[in-house]
Amino acid sequence: MTRYAGRRAVVVGQDTGIGLAIAKRLVEGGARVLLTARTAADGAHARSELGSAAHVVESLDGLYDTAGRPDGLDGPDLLFADAVATARPLLPLLRDGGAVVLTAPAPSQAAVRALAAELAPRGIRVNAVAPGCIEAAPPVAPPPLPPLGRLGSAEEVARAALFLATDATFTTGAHLPVDGGLGPA
Question: How far is residue 101's CA from residue 128's CA, in Å, rounded to a whole number?
């Protein structure tokens, strides 16, 4: 499949679960992907899942070559980050007309809209998915089920994030709940 052919993406802040699911779909669709891993073990796991089609580094420091340029991925047009603070150092590298999708439940609607307004002059769209009731391994205690009666998967959050990044081309500043109908806490 070549749905994402020609795309260059950075997935940072979540090397397992949601971030890895996003990276997998991008790689399967033909994108060049750079994924950050929190630990060497997480990096090894991500490499085994993604194969040679993705570049996995174990910290943001590993993102740059000796000349200070992004190593392995020049001028990404898609950025998936767990938080605004994680995304901010990478924004100068992002191509004009690109997209940022925040993938952790924490970013407030106000933070998403503020970053969207800041990047709008560059044609960069900023949106967020707000995952809730997502399967995690291993669960400490069974979470309450949302109205849909089951837990969601990282893959379902990845599909929503990719929709916001690539298909929702006239959407910015949006905060999309992916929570099985749980709604605000």
Answer: 5
Burial 172-184, CB ≥16 within 10 A → b, else e: bbbbbbbbbebee
In the block, tokens 């407030």 appear at: 108
Distance in angstroms (rounded) separating the CA atoms of residues 33 and 57? 11
The span from the CA of 57 to the CA of 37, in Å, is 6
For the entire predicted model, the pTM comes to 0.91
Mean pLDDT in each 10-residue stretch from start to end of the chain (185 residues)?
Answer: 91 86 96 92 92 86 54 81 94 97 88 97 97 79 86 96 98 95 77
Nearest to 24 by CA among 161, 167, 155, 165: 155
Give the pair of three-digit tokens for residue 23: 């990276």
